[in-house]
Structures are given as C-alpha cells and as structure tokens.
Design a protein that fits this description.
Elements: E1 11-18, E2 21-28, E3 37-41, H1 51-62, E4 66-71, H2 91-104, E5 110-115, H3 117-127, E6 136-142, H4 148-157, H5 161-182, H6 196-207, H7 213-220, E7 233-236, H8 247-250, E8 258-261, H9 284-300, H10 307-310
Parallel strand pairs: 3-4, 3-5, 5-6, 6-7, 7-8
Antiparallel strand pairs: 1-2, 2-4
Helix pairs in contact: 1-9, 2-3, 4-5, 4-6, 6-7
Length: about 325
Amino acid sequence: MTGDTTIEDRRVHKIPLGGKNLLLCLELPAKSEKQPLVVMIHGMGGCSESAYMRRIATRLGKRGLGVFMVNQRGSGPGMGLSNSLWNGGSSGDLACVVEYLTHVFPARPVLLIGFSLSGNILLKYLGEGRAIPSTVHAALSVNPPVDLKAAALAISSGRWSRTFNRYYMGLINRQVRAIRQCFPDAFVPQGEPSTIYDFDVAYTARVGGFRNVDDYYEKCSAAHLLDRIVVPTTVLCSRNDPFVPFDIFQSLKMSLCVVGEFPEGGGHMGYIANKKLPTGDRRWMDYFVCEWVADACRIEEGAPGGAALASAEPGAK
C-alpha cells in the first residue's frame, strides 16, 4: 500500500538553494491554516513518493494537518533541479526550507520529521548553532545514522551488506546517472561504486567539497551535536537497526531537550508490530509518527501530551 495521495492533491514549491539549484517540495494543504505544518524529509534513495512518505502524509492529511514533503537534491520529482546529489550533511538545504516556510507560512507552527539519513541532517541542523526560527516547535528523527562512518561501514560490511548495498547503490547510481543527463558537466565517478562507503569516497567527499571521506564523516555526523539541541526533539531508533549500531547512542551525551525512544525491535525503519494497531494494520512506525504529531499538536494547544505515545507498542519488530 502506497497511500492514496495524488499529485492533484498537492501544491508544488520550488525552494532556491543558491546558484541555479532548487529543492522541489510538495504540500498537502491543511484543512485549517491554524494547524501546524508537518515537514517530512525522506531517507537515502527515497523521495516524496516513497511508500512510507505517502502513507504517513495520507494519514496526517486525513486528520486535517498540512504536510510538506521535501525532495532532497537529485531525488524523485526534484530530479533535474540540482547538479549534484544530497548527502548526510545537507543541513544548509534544510535551513533554506525552514526559512522559506517562515516567509510563506509565518504564523504556522512547524514540526520537523527526518527519516534515516535525513534524520541525521535534522539533528545536525538543530545542533550546529544556527538561529532556529521560533516557528519550529518540535522535531522527530527516525533511525538517524548519527555516526556516518559507523553506519557506512555497517551497511558495507555487515551480515546483509550484499543485499542492502545492491538495493541502495542501485538507486543511488541511477540518481547520479540521471543528474548527469540533466547536467552534462555533473561529476560521475569512474566505475559505479558498489558500497555506500565506496560511494562516499568516490562521490560524496569530492562533490561535497570535503578533504576526504573521513573529513565528511567527522564534519557531518550529528553525534557530537545532540547535547546542543534546544528544540524539543525525539529520536526513534530500534536497538537492532543493522545500519545504526545502538552502542553509539549509549555513549552519547544528549541535551535535556532530546528524548530517546529505543524499542528492542524494528530494524531500519521496519517496525512491524506483533499485532494489529488501532489503525487496523501493523505498521508501527507510521502509527508512532502520527501519534507523535498528535501529541505535539495537543501540547501546542495547551493540553497535556504523552498519552498517545504511551499507547504505542515499544516491542514492535
């Protein structure tokens, strides 16, 4: 099931990033302009059309909320609007999105949700010392690889590395080739990298302007910034995520504004519940995200929060 949102339901926004680069974002309008605006940012290899993005956007839309789906550089409907692919440190692009929203929707509270690699970007944005607009009221980071090197090595050499790398690198290499078709001068590495780590060595570090891959990992990992976050933030990550070693979180210092939710099972954004949820299915991540948004809205209205999330199943697989 991919959800029933259609392009006709949504408004297109093209956000300037500097130079000729743009981000394409899709807005599912709220039933009331007083409702918070939920900003969703997809994970690696995904886009606004990814199944989980469409499902969650549909559910939030049915609740009357406004949803703003960001397509990272070179992703989905945004292909052809940027001459390079995004990376795990693209917090400057997120800053452009938030600034744009403060101008277009100056009175709307903003809730930020980042999935996977964009979850790291979200935490980096919140913790790197930027002036965060007062309209940003809360954030949720889902399975963020806050140590980019550890995550890249886990994907590239773990038990399921061949399967995961074939899947993700198939998507990413196609994106790089598509960018080259749109921008003949765009960089394409010689030979297609077969692992995430090799891709970061051959493409990410070079195109991103880093000295080398370790410079990229060090500067863009959000792990060392979690103690600086001042916006109420929730981090959801399963203890058995094959890409994000849980011991990373055990050794981190997090600010009092950051709350960790670490269920035993769930994999990397899988979270299939053991039994049906109140929504009638077993998609626990979708349920958690929507209930987190509901709680944030209740707090925004002055009502006590926490009840909705307390009913979620932390043992989801």
